[in-house]
């Protein structure tokens, strides 16, 4: 199928790109575009060319799925050279998004018209790359480096209005963007041969250079582990120090090197993994979601209030229900305080705050849920309480309403069994704080209707969440793997590591926070209560809780938090306590390197992930990675635990787990059969096919 249609409007040729879903610049589109441009350029009846597009995007950029494969002609820079080198003016008619290579196509044109709703950006930095088809050389020549560099460094798109202000587009069309582009093209014809961006060195003044270097110095301080920020600085600097041709060559060399960088490979993997989750194996993509016009949330505690805010923030009316007036008053006060904090910070206007609060109706008694299309239970994490609530709701809510539990690890089929409508009951596990955290685990128990699952997925997206369908099982996916890491932390502390060493190994890997600091933030008593409920122990963690050191809320936990400090300090008393526990267990403490700590923390997580895949609790390894990226701050440029394991090599992971199992006698550390099989076959998790959960 042709991806570019050529039409004529008088002497103006109109090349319309049509390569669904987003006009990505794959090889076929590049070839068609080059062919059509050549035809129009050599047609004596044509005096100018407009490049337009069909669908929701002008062009969404290069085809990311082609990266890492042998490049196929024509390469994008060559197509852009043909556009810019045309003797006939070429005008871009931009509707939807012009991103990455898409904006670079527009930059190679001699003029640009944008629809009022268009968005334009160079997001390559978010993929661990830099613009690789002239963006770092043309954009500074068009709008100045001091404006171009921040746009490329943030990767954030700008509106058509902002683009006009920057000088990135020549016109914002009030009506039909193609018609406006044709008119502009005709005007350019009258003016004579067009001036390509490459000739506009006049924008690269000494003052512009000075302003750019200040921004570059700031960026290099914050670039951390990301080599592409440094490459971007080098590429934009080349616009000042090299000729246009040499600058393009320098940019291409930097871009090509980044393509091979593991951090960029991880970010490109994440890009597709976060889109793959929408495909739920075993559910036909034709299944439609049920209508959700009104919601109800049971429980106005931290989680329930946060979930109600998610609905209000998405413009969906929600009834927040408690058992008693005092409880619902407390809940509403907590919600009001959170919104007030956003207003104080300037991230929410008072009008928006009032609009959202008005969408939350406080109520007492489950009867208030009668008209809801979905009810999300966020009550006390105790099975009896949940069964009682679901049994009561079953008799109250209308047929077809969905009943969801926000349980973080309880058995969803047991909750569903308390109702006469198991086909409408599933888990929607939000992460705290619910109004902030992106991750939403949708627990699909056997017997739930497909359209109920599809409804929960669609609702999750409406709430701005990253919804991942998981199977029913203790801790589902995220918390189950977190528990593996928590057990590993306990083992390391007893064996000789100290809290600050364990945390430093993970923050050095790229996490924002280590396991000890995270426990102190969440409250050590939460894990303590859960262990006691399940008859489990953890000597160090239990001893810290028995001392009443619950973390930040008590001023000390694994670390000290003097005067309400948010960053912990080493606590000699905790370190003495840990040493005592080792002694009581007859363990001779030893030191661990950061690498040893890292593998002892992460390998067991990967092992648990392998078991989760074997048991069909996750559909694909990428889903597990998306969960850890969006629920637990796994660094995106590391790709997620399963992608990371593939980069290490599963054979290495298996050997390390076997050694740990032998050293500790902990059979849970024995490699999972799936892990062993993939390693033996020289494969990775990426070789697995998706399977229903
Ligand atoms: N390449 C390949 N596939 C892409 C794609 C791309 N650039 N963009 C989107 N898709 C697929 C996506 O995987 C999904 O597929 C479908 O399109 C709909 O996407 C040389 C080097 C454009 C704002 O980073 O930001 O150009 O799952 O679900 O929510 O210097 O897609 O349906 O099979 O996201 O409406 C730079 C990436 C590339 C933009 C639309 N460009 N895309 O959002 O739909 S590098 C980007 C987006 C580059 C040059 C450099 C968004 C969107 P499927 P979607 P959406």
From TrEMBL:
The lineage of its organism: Bacteria, Pseudomonadati, Pseudomonadota, Alphaproteobacteria, Hyphomicrobiales. InterPro entries: 3-OHacyl-CoA_DH_NAD-bd, 3HC_DH_C, 6-PGluconate_DH-like_C_sf, ClpP/crotonase-like_dom_sf, Enoyl-CoA_hyd/isom_CS, Enoyl-CoA_hydra/iso, NAD(P)-bd_dom_sf. SUPFAM superfamilies: 6-phosphogluconate dehydrogenase C-terminal domain-like, ClpP/crotonase, NAD(P)-binding Rossmann-fold domains. Keywords: Fatty acid metabolism, Isomerase, Lipid degradation, Lipid metabolism, Lyase, Multifunctional enzyme, NAD, Oxidoreductase, Peroxisome. One of its GO terms (molecular function) is NAD+ binding. Residues 295-471 form the 3-hydroxyacyl-CoA dehydrogenase NAD binding domain. It comes from the Bacteria. The keyword Lipid metabolism applies. Pathway: Lipid metabolism; fatty acid beta-oxidation. Its main location: other. It is found in: Peroxisome. CDD domains: crotonase-like. This is 3-hydroxyacyl-CoA dehydrogenase. It comes from Bosea vaviloviae. Residues 475-560, 597-683 form the 3-hydroxyacyl-CoA dehydrogenase C-terminal domain.
